[in-house]
Prior knowledge:
Elements: E1 20-26, E2 29-35, H1 40-49, E3 51-54, E4 57-60, H2 62-73, E5 74-76, H3 84-89, H4 94-100, H5 113-118
Antiparallel strand pairs: 1-2, 2-5, 3-4
Amino acid sequence: xxxxxxxxxxQRYQLKDSVDTVILxxxxxxxxxxxxxLGYVRKNKLVSECYVYGxxxxxxxxxxxxxxxxxxxxxxxxxxKTNEMFLVSLDxxxxxxxxxxxxxxxxxxxxxxDEVKKD
Length: 119
């Protein structure tokens, strides 16, 4: 007799269209930003686009990944649309440090550029 498997709720693993409000602390001031989650497929596509190939080597453009991830996750901010012009206009400041906390890690354990190089 075959035992019936428990029903699997695959829908709870789907990306939701929800937008969350986060409040970042920038030198004691509150910065309210609305963000959405960076989905699995979009994140993998972004990571792939940030690999740099040249003369037998493979590198990863962390700067490009950070900018593209911020453009993808920030839905609403006081400055309007988060685009390349806005991001390159920022200096190295507490605001950029706060925004960096919104960038999802490009690699997780078992998925790093070092492991790719070893293969």
